[in-house]
Amino acid sequence: MQKKWYITGKIPDRQLEDIDPLLQKILYNRGVREAREIKNFLSADIGDLFDPLMMTDMSRAVNRILTAINKKERIIIYGDYDVDGITATTLLYTYLKESLGLEVAYYLPNRLQEGYGLNLEAVRGIIQDGFNLLITVDCGITALKEVEYACSQGLDIIITDHHQPGGSLPGAEAVVDPHRKDDAYPFKSLAGVGVVFKLCQALEMELKGEMISPLLEELLDIVALGTIADIVPLTGENRILVKKGLQMIKKSKNIGLKTLIKKVGLEDKEINAGQIGYILAPPINAAGRVKDPRAGIRLLTTSSPEEALLLAEELVKINKERQSLEESIYREAVAMVESSLDLEEDRAIVLASEDWHHGVIGIVASRLVERYYRPTVLIAIEDGLGKGSCRSISNLNLYEALKACSGSLTRFGGHAMAAGIEIEARNILKFREELNRYLHLHLSEEDLVPRLKLDAVLDREAINLELFNKLELLKPYGVGNPRPVFLLNNVRLYKSYPVGKEQEHLKFSLDNGLNGIGFGFGDIGTDLSGRNTDLAFSLILNEWNGNREVQLKLEDIILREEIDYYPVHFSLNNWLFADKRGCPKWLDYLKGLLELKHKVAAYINNLKACKEIKNNLGREDVYFSNVKDEFKRFTQVDGGLLLFTNPLLFHESEVNDLVFLSLPFSLDEMVKMIRVFKGKETVIHLLFGQEQLKTNENIIKKRLPDDRYLRRFYLYLKAMPDKQILRKDLHKVLPDSNDFIYNRYLIDNSLTVLTELGLIAQRDGRIRLLPVPAERLDLSDSISYNDTIGIIKRFKRFIELAFADDLFPLISELQKEDF
Asked: Are strands 724-726 and 766-769 parallel, antiparallel or unpaired?
C-alpha cells in the first residue's frame, strides 16, 4: 500500500552545546526541546521518576495495604491474561512476597471462559475463599457492578489500572489510574505494570524511605517486558523503566525469564525492545490468548529450573499453535474483505465468524489494519454472543467511535488505538452501519492514506558507523520513540535484486558502496534499474566475522517519475511542499488533483505549453490566464485549473494546490506567486526538473549579456568600417556564428551597457563609437550590467535551493522573503 511521506522541519531556536545537531533536530521534532528535557531523555535516569504519591488515591492504596499487613489480612491480586496483566501480577506478587514477606495469592481470568476484567463469579469465589483485600492490576476501572457487589460482601478492593475510565468510577477503597479526570500525575501513558511499579515505589517510600530498593530495581526486567508488550509510548517514565529494565534483563535473576530467553534463541544476544515485542513476549501472550494464562505467571515466578524449562517449552509450543491459528483466520478474513467489502465506500472493516478463536483475532485485526489501513473490528461469535477486538488508524480515536455506537454493544473498553467489545450477534450489522456512518463524518479520504513520518534528509556521504553510534543514544525504540527514518532524495540504485526463499526481499547497493535490505520489497526489485528513486530508510548494523557495517533498512520507496507514488511532503511553519521534482507526467498529475475537485493554479513560463496542456486536458474547468476574463471566471468557481505565466496580473485568490511546472527565476518571483494563491491549507507542488532548468538558463543566455558577450559585441562594432551604424541594420552586419547568438533582447541590453560605460552614443536610431577612455573600464560602472549580474546571481542562488535534496532551506528563505 502506497504511503504519504511527511517530514517536518521545525528548527530549534538555538543549537545546544554538547548535543549533536541531528539528535537535537530529531528530538525537537518529537517534542523534546528544552536542554533539560533533552538531557533527561538521553540519560533516562531512574532518579528522574516522578513521586508516585502524586497519583490520585495512591496514598489511600498504600494505607489500605499497610492496614492489611498489620492485621494479617489475606490479599489476592486480580490480573489480566495478556503480557501486561501477567507481568503486573508477577511484579506485585513478587514484591509483596519477597520484599514485605507477605503470603499473597493471585487470580488470572481465563480469556475463553470468563473474558476480560473482574467478573461476578470470580469475585464470589474469592469471597468464599476468605480474602479480605483484592488488588486489581491492569483492569477494574469500569467494573462498577462487580466492585459494588464485593464491597457489599465485605471484600475491600484497590483498583490499579491504566485504561480509560467510564462515566463513573468504581466505589473501591482506592482507584489508582493516571487517566482519572481528577488525577494530576504528570505522565499518563504508563502500562498496567507501570502503574503497579508506582504502587510498589510508594510502598518503598512509606516503609523504607527510599524511591527504589535493590529488589525493586531487579524487578525492572519484568516491568520492561510488560511495558514493551503493551505497546505504550516509550517516552517519559516508560522510557526510563524500559531502558533500565533492558539493562536488568542482561543480568536477570528471574529463572523463568532466563530460560525463555534461551528457548527462543536470544541467549548471549543484545536484547532490544523489538526482540521483546516480537520474540520474547508472544509465547507468554499466547498462553493467555488460547490456553491458560497461569502458565505465563508460573514461569515468571518459579524458583525451579526444571519447572521453568517445562513451562518455557510449553509456552513456545502454544505460541506455534497460536501462529498457525492466526494465519488461518488471517487468510479467511482477507478473503472476506476481498469478496464482500467495497473499501472505496466502507470506511471500516467489520467481520464476524463463528469459527474464529477470539484469543487471536486482535493480532489478525492489527495485520488487516497494516494491509488495508482501515479501522478494523473482528468478532468471534459463540452462542449468539460476539467478542470483538478492534484496532484503529492514526487519525481516529477508536474509543470515542465505539462510544458513539455503544447502543449496539453489550459493553466495550480500551484506548484510542485498540479496544475490545461484546455484542449480540443480531446487532453486528447495525453496529457496522453505525460505525461506518461515524467514520464518514470523522474521517476524510486523506485520513485513509497511511503516513510515513520522516525524521531528516541525509547526505549519502554522512551515513557511517559514527552516525549510527550517535543514533544509538536514542534507544530504546518503540511507540512514541520509533527508530529514526531518514530520506535519501532522488538517488539511483547501483544494483538491486530480490533475495529470500520466495524472492520476497530486496537487496540493493548505492554507487558509494552503501548496502541495503528491503524486507517485503522483492516484487519491485526488477523495476529499479536506472530509475530515480526516493528512499525512506532506517540504519541497522550488520555484523559478521568481526566486521561491522552500517546498512540501510528500507522502510518505503518512491519512483519519482511515476504519479502512482505520492510526492514527499515537506512541512515548515504551516507551509506544505509536495516534492515531485523531475516528474515528466504533468498532465496525469494535474488530472489527479482535478479529480479531487480541487482548485489548482499551475505556473508555466511557456505560452505554447499552456495552450497544449489546456487542449490535452480537454476539460471545461481549465482556464488560461492570458485569455480575457478567464481569471475572473476561475475565482468564481469551486474547482478547476488555472494555467498562468504572470501572477502579477491577478489579485489574491486562494487555491487548494499551487503547482510549479516551470522553474521561477528567483526567490522573489516565487514568493510573489505564492502570495497570490496561498491559503492556510494550500499545498505547493514542485514538478520542475532539469529540463525546466535548461529552459531558464537558455532564456537568461538569450536575454542577458555577460561580460564575455559584451566584449565580443563591442569588438564587432569596432571592426565595422562605418563608425556610424544604423541600429536597425545591426543584425545585417553582426557575424552569423553558432557561438555568437544575437536577438533583439541581447542587442538592446548590450547597447544599453556600452552606452552607460561611455563607449558608444545613441541618437536618432544611429550608433556612434566614442573614443576609448585612457583608464581601464570597469563593467560594474554600468547600472544595467549590475542589474544583469544581480539577476544571474539571484538565479544561481535560487537554483541551488530549488534543486537541493533538502527543501527546508528553500522553504525557509521563501518565508523570509514573504515576511
From this structure: antiparallel
